[in-house]
UniProtKB/TrEMBL annotation, chains A, B:
InterPro entries: Atg7 (IPR006285), Atg7_N (IPR032197), Atg7_N_1 (IPR042522), Atg7_N_2 (IPR042523), ThiF/MoeB/HesA (IPR045886), ThiF_NAD_FAD-bd (IPR000594), Ubiquitin-activating_enz (IPR035985). The keyword Cytoplasm applies. GO terms for molecular function: Atg12 activating enzyme activity; Atg8 activating enzyme activity. This is Ubiquitin-like modifier-activating enzyme ATG7. Homodimer. It comes from Achlya hypogyna.
Amino acid sequence: MATAPLLQFQTFTSSPHVSFFQKLAQLKLDTFQLSDASQAISGFFELSTHADVPARFLVDDTAFGFDPSTSPDRAKHEWRVPGVLYNTNTLDAFKTIDKTALLDAARATVCEAIASDAPETLQYFVLVTFADLKSHTFWYRFAFPAVLPPSPYRVTSWAPATSAAWQPQPVALMQQLVDLREMTGDITTRNFPQHFMVDRALGTVLPLSATVADPAAVVFGLVDSSALPQHPGWPLRNYLAWIRRRFPAMTSVTLLLFRDAVHHWATVPPMVACKASIVATVEWSADDSVNAPKVVGWELNVQGKQGPRCMQLGNLMDPLQLAKTSVDLNLKLMRWRQLPSLDLDKIAATKCLLLGAGTLGCHTARNLLSWGFRHITFVDNSKVSHSNPVRQPLFEFGDVGKPKAETAAKALKRIFPLVQAEGHLLSIPMAGHAMSSSQVLEDTMHAYQSLEALIDGHDVIFLGTDSRESRWLPTVMAGAKRKLVINAALGFDSYLVMRHGIPDVVDLGCYFCNDIVSPSDSLSDRTLDQMCTVTRPGGAAIAGATAVELLVCLLHQPVSHSAPVTLDTTGGALSVVPHQIRGFLHSFSQVLVEGPAFPKCTACSAPVREAFVEDGWRLFASVCSSKTYLQDLTGLSALMASADALSFDGSDDSDDDALL
Amino acid sequence: MATAPLLQFQTFTSSPHVSFFQKLAQLKLDTFQLSDASQAISGFFELSTHADVPARFLVDDTAFGFDPSTSPDRAKHEWRVPGVLYNTNTLDAFKTIDKTALLDAARATVCEAIASDAPETLQYFVLVTFADLKSHTFWYRFAFPAVLPPSPYRVTSWAPATSAAWQPQPVALMQQLVDLREMTGDITTRNFPQHFMVDRALGTVLPLSATVADPAAVVFGLVDSSALPQHPGWPLRNYLAWIRRRFPAMTSVTLLLFRDAVHHWATVPPMVACKASIVATVEWSADDSVNAPKVVGWELNVQGKQGPRCMQLGNLMDPLQLAKTSVDLNLKLMRWRQLPSLDLDKIAATKCLLLGAGTLGCHTARNLLSWGFRHITFVDNSKVSHSNPVRQPLFEFGDVGKPKAETAAKALKRIFPLVQAEGHLLSIPMAGHAMSSSQVLEDTMHAYQSLEALIDGHDVIFLGTDSRESRWLPTVMAGAKRKLVINAALGFDSYLVMRHGIPDVVDLGCYFCNDIVSPSDSLSDRTLDQMCTVTRPGGAAIAGATAVELLVCLLHQPVSHSAPVTLDTTGGALSVVPHQIRGFLHSFSQVLVEGPAFPKCTACSAPVREAFVEDGWRLFASVCSSKTYLQDLTGLSALMASADALSFDGSDDSDDDALL
């Protein structure tokens, strides 16, 4: 007996799948966030099919909730093992986590299973991870806790099941096991248990919970993870501990180590399994105490030393997917501490139409991209000029001469290929500009229809063109269609960012509510500085950013763009929703302004909206052919007449900051 | 007499040179600005050398102040004509300018010359322009005012000067004229006058001012712009008017039309001129009154119709030069109305060092470029990651994996090729990070030296790195060297932009003046969101813009970066110069904060500066090897000890916004 060889076990080789880390990354980002509470997970082992193939322990994206109904084949060939995940928050925490304590905790779980007469599994695993989502690097360490016997086991016999001189016929037994695996019906019973007993006399497979009068009349069966010719797999350790706890009088046991060669199995299943499986006898010292067993099981690193393993997913991922994941990461991290309510799906789904792809449009688009907006459409009728690139952050010197809208859209795609960006070369029909020829009329009508279709197809309209009159028609159209309008405008060293009201819902003024004259041709007689939008460069960057921040706040209100003005700062980061933000670079200051809609407004008042709904094109054409049409329509003319009588002095047209 | 042919004149063909428009553009931008006051200018005509070559009237960059000493050759072959420029402010003004009134005004000038007995020139010209500097398009229209006789002149003889049957010998006369042209001495007299007389008997050249007893004894000489075989040039018109005013009894005159063939002239000058020149006799009706003469002279357009001509310079210019001109244009236009004191040369010469080429660095650089800064250097030690491009506006998806500093510099050059941008891959030595090996020590020392050299070579240091401790050494170095430091930092939805004080000059705090602990390693144990600088995207755009606006304000103070805090808004656009600007995205607000330097500051206090001046590297090494070194050095330790005794509760280290 003393000369019988020691029983040695093949360890598991952890084989976490990329999908596990992807799922972990997603959960960390979306669910766990800063929590490092332990998570119940599950892994699988399969039967090794060749002595050279390690006994793989698989963990994949099903680890956090495996549904066997979605992969019935898997349930035939893999055996589930419960485990626990400790995902640490920092690399330091990962490195310094108390591994002894974790194994102690796992020992309790294992011992509980050993103490059960009907354990589902005796195997268990521990996984410690640190997910560096920034670099797509995952640090991890597995433990497969196994009870150490006080003194080693010894193997007194070891032979293929085909050669075993015992009842029942091994092939018939194998057939039973294979049948178990092939059963239809309740999918959870489709596989056979990791451990089972075989009645030697009857040749029947019994569950561990069966009453056994004489353990010597039973063969103890085990699904063996090993394919090594001389060694069983790791799960046998805890199984032996269970046998010894269950039948304390025994000092030896006959084992059936069920093995299989899955890739041959389809041909003659029982015979293959029978040839691969092992019948062995193992014995131990009767003096051993199995109380308070010691547990081992930390996996070594790939160098065979104590230490963590690492998976660098960045190298494996599709670059586009990587870009998406990385960009999402930065956004989702906002939810961890600062903005739990951040609705990134809503942001990603919001379709933004940017009228004007100049200084304001480019800055706005950049900020939309940063915030996770994914549908961005530009409208512009001009080409990139030499002076544009330094101020319009979607253009380069090499873009000079190209159409702005299309070039801006292409730039967005170069920055983030997954954005849905497009550009339309389109002259926005301008109120007050005479349609001087039939060609102009036709072109304008075409542009009118294109603009309307674009507004219909988007959720938010940003006004960022370089004239007042080009903002009138979009204001009217979007107002009538109850689209959200965010208007940004620049003065020399000031800026205005505002949202338009929604008629009948939110009584807030639009861009034209402060005007008492119709928009008219302001472009024809301009000096050079008026042609060039002379502004301090910082204004556009700040206004573009502020416009997008305002939109994000609005999207997070219960009624989105119909939200009332809220200036209460106690409601959290996205709770303040002003009407207008006016900023002044010369004093580094910003004020919030609120103004109701003007009932005689040339753009958003009821008469204008009604005229638009009745026949929008006719309204527009009338505005172009008569300078007083809108003033008459809205009643402004009458107001001005009475105001004139009182020496009314309300015009602010002398303001240099023509767009504010 | 009635059968003699009518005298017809070859008009001038205006030939404005590109350099004229370039000069005009520059003057408009820098000097005239919004003024449309008339400007005295001058043009030149030369002798046409061939009948097929039009009589060109040249206007070039010397138009606004010709210095004959700089081009003596020119003074030999071109005759100067005074003129007046009306440069309009708008295209509309150009189109609608009152051309009749302009010609009337010119008639007065011409008539004044005719009334003079010694006119320098009888020719004059009017130029109306509109310079669309945005598109580099120049609209222009010339007039060469000429007095119309009441009835036409008639030519009674017309022959080459060589065949003339009159005294003196024409060749001898030509020799006199050519000698006049070749004279050395006072350069202004080097050429002969446009008009002169020749004493028939003596063969001598006389000025117009000479006393003439018998005009019939005189030949009236004129430099003739025409090379047509049968027609004199335009200047003869006013000359005839002068002759008739001066000698009212005359009804006919003998003319010497001096012509030349410049390209042959070098060979046998007098003979060539003699062969080309014309002696002609012209007569007119004695009944004519020359009072209140009518004046004509607007040049037709290239189609031969009334209308303006146009020069599109954009097509001719070097694209790089175009970019420079266009970019300068936008900046210079600010001086027209808003910022007359704007010192763009100072801005262009200011060398900016950006520490950190991430979100803040990229935004800052973009704004520097917009403002006309032309020396921008980046320092960064990292590579572009997948999440960067959407937030860092100098990177694209295709840049992922490239070093940030160099990539950012290249992007700036793609935007504006004339910028002097460079990137340095450099890890800024970080206070409180242990130098754990000799390699680390060596690398850090090298980085220390590189950083110091970079700070020495720049005027302004922007701090935009992603940790507190990486800002310490640059703060110490720049403070000791009295460089201007602009610090920008982001919280989740807030931002800070500040300038550091200058020790002993401006008592303002630095970034570390609010700290009561030394900067230490904050990078090793960070959760994912701390690693990723989770911020609302708008903050960086606003902070970057604000940082540059602050710098521009400082550069326009009399003492630049030593300027005291000024919050008085009455001093104009660049007069407010705060210390700190703190902004809050959640409330769309901004406040100005001012704080003095802290005498125990770990970065800018006297003990630290003195230790740096004595041995900067030793100071840095000490800070890295001892966590309390700085606190001991500055006296913070003692302060904290006494504070502890009083249950001092001043630490704000729990702030999530670690960088604010």
